[in-house]
Design brief:
heterodimer, A: 283 residues, mainly alpha, 3 helical TM bundles of succinate and fumarate reductases, disordered N terminus, B: 278 residues, alpha+beta, Ubiquitin-like (UB roll), Fumarate Reductase Iron-sulfur Protein, Chain B, domain 2, two-stranded antiparallel sheet, 7 strands, 29% helix, 12% strand
């Protein structure tokens, strides 16, 4: 018989969720770093090669290329490599999706147990608590839009209807962001959403690294927490620069110029188009 | 206007003296009982020298007439030690949680016409006016077995020696008075009216810190695994969102966020050991 008095309650037998609560919470924390965080870092570094790619081209291969041309060339090479050479790409994508879904669903459930109170307690750490949850919500929407439009080809969500192609990585990206060859109001909105999404997700990752160190018990003393906070600030700032520079080049580059470089690369490396069909984006 | 939020003037530059014979307004959130609606009432008070909020409330009790001239029931509040060691007079003053006994009006409301708002804590059920039921705070201490087990059927003799270094770590933790400031300011700790829901909701910084205090005690450590088991579960250490408001509002300056991280580490190690069968 289960009896309950006002002071002591006889608990019902714990649910599966309750029994595995610790494991679930720590997996939530861990998935934010591996694989999601690791992927985020790799993704942002690859994308930022739009800015620094000219410096990454081997001497002799990039004679006469400008900074922008070099960036487009290098980035296109990276994208081609990922889409044609990386083994088990589908498995990697599924792993990421499972991890992101797990982290998102639990993240929302956990976030709903709190009530932000920054109006009364306007401490910096309390603002970060609130922003961590807000950035999670916006981040989920952004990741979904980003992948649905550029990876799954849901072109009905892209202003101008551009389909991203890994053979025309920069030109189709630019058009998807701008809303076509030229800027459109919807394209400006998409680009601003990208800026917001990238910024919030990088904050979410860097601040998550800081809180994870407390959760797991790595940083105990106040000074250890402060020092690790500076390290996370540095990591976050570096990733912000990478993300913003990638987005900056992606929206500002001339799609026609990028397309010309991409077409010459396709001609120079004919083995790539044999493996996958080249979409007809010439006009 | 409020010129200072601190009562500890020792390290502060000399402040202009409070205006003698000034009249201030206490804006008090009134509630006749559990589940009853709340209303605001204003009272004029002339704080005596060195007055605190409690002595102003005593003045209101002597003559409970609002600024509208309405005679109302005296304001109810809870208090005990009047020296910031019992925690019972904790309330929300001008939007921030603190003890009302150590809120000195010479500092806090030194000028004619200053307004001080008083509200009951929002995370605990109101009994009446400024008096709340903090049973959940003490229930949490029972959950983490915040004591040293010394009961037995025979004399257990002297306990193990404690090192001075350990004493030093533990001393500040032992100054916790379970006032509830850390809970009131915590975005993860929210009102649970029903005791049956207490064990599912976040336990709060004070109980986590007290678990650390008694885990660090040479004899208290006997219950460490039981404490970590509770704190590893639902409503335990994992429910902390690291907003770190607790440590900022703690009147005893207890390093609550260090306690949270230390218990986080202890629970991590405990669970890894458990996973591998100890």
């Amino acid at each position: 018989m289960q009896t309950a008095t006002s002071n002591t309650t006889t608990p019902a037998s714990p649910s599966w969720f309750e029994k595995n609560y610790f494991l679930i919470r720590r997996l939530h924390s861990l998935t934010g770093i591996v694989p999601i965080g690791v992927f985020l870092v790799a993704h942002l570094i690859t994308n930022s090669s739009l800015l620094w790619g000219r410096a990454g081209i081997r001497p002799g291969d990039g004679e006469g290329l400008s900074l922008t041309e070099g960036g487009i060339t290098y980035f296109q090479k990276e994208v081609t490599w990922i889409n044609t050479q990386v083994p088990h790409l589908l498995l990697i994508e599924i792993t990421l999706w499972v991890a992101i879904a797990f982290h998102s669903i639990l993240g929302i459930a956990f976030a709903l147990t709190g009530k932000t109170n920054t109006s009364r307690y306007a401490y910096q750490s309390n603002w970060r608590y609130a922003l961590q949850r807000f950035s999670g919500y916006v981040g989920i929407a952004f990741i979904f839009y980003h992948v649905a439009t550029l990876r799954w080809g849901w072109t009905f969500l892209v202003p101008g209807g551009t389909q991203w192609s890994h053979h025309y990585a920069v030109s189709t990206l630019t058009m998807a962001l701008r809303g076509g060859e030229q800027w459109t109001p919807a394209g400006i909105a998409v680009s601003l959403f990208y800026f917001l999404g990238i910024t919030l997700l990088i904050f979410h990752f860097a601040n998550g690294l800081w809180t994870a160190a407390i959760t797991w018990g790595l940083t105990i003393s106040t000074s250890a927490q402060r020092n690790w906070g500076y390290a996370c600030l540095a990591i976050g700032s570096g990733l912000m620069l990478a993300g913003w520079s990638a987005l900056g080049v992606a929206v500002l580059v001339d799609p026609a110029k990028a397309r010309a470089i991409e077409q010459s690369m396709l001609k120079a490396a004919p083995q790539a188009p044999l493996q996958t069909q080249v979409p007809d984006t010439d006009k | 206007m409020i010129t200072s939020l601190t009562t500890n003037a020792a390290n502060q530059p000399a402040k202009p003296a409070a205006t003698p014979g000034r009249t201030i307004t206490l804006r008090i959130k009134r509630c006749d009982g559990p589940g009853k609606p709340s209303t605001w009432q204003d009272f004029h008070v002339r704080p005596l020298k060195n007055a605190n909020i409690i002595s102003c409330l005593q003045q209101v009790a002597l003559n409970p007439v609002t600024t509208d001239g309405q005679r109302v029931a005296p304001v109810v509040w809870d208090s005990g030690c009047l020296e910031e060691v019992c925690g019972s007079c904790t309330m929300v003053i001008n939007g921030k949680v603190r003890q009302s006994c150590s809120c000195l009006l010479d500092d806090y409301a030194p000028n004619e016409g200053d307004v001080v708002t008083l509200e009951p804590m929002t995370k605990f059920p109101v009994v009446r006016d400024l008096w709340v039921d903090r049973s959940r705070v003490f229930h949490a201490l029972k959950r983490v077995k915040a004591w040293v087990p010394i009961d037995g059927t025979y004399n257990l003799g002297a306990g193990p020696k404690e090192t001075p270094a350990n004493q030093e770590t533990r001393y500040v933790l032992s100054t916790c008075m379970s006032c509830g400031c850390c809970l009131e300011a915590c975005p993860q700790f929210n009102m649970e009216e029903q005791p049956k829901d207490w064990d599912q909701a976040f336990i709060g910084a004070h109980a986590i810190s007290q678990a650390r205090l008694f885990n660090l005690h040479p004899t208290g450590a006997q219950l460490e695994r039981e404490r970590l088991e509770v704190l590893g579960g639902v409503g335990g250490i994992n429910d902390c969102g690291n907003a770190q408001n607790c440590v900022k509002v703690c009147p005893k300056k207890i390093p609550l966020t260090e306690s949270i991280a230390a218990i986080g580490r202890a629970v991590t190690i405990h669970k890894v050991k458990q996973f591998f069968g100890r």
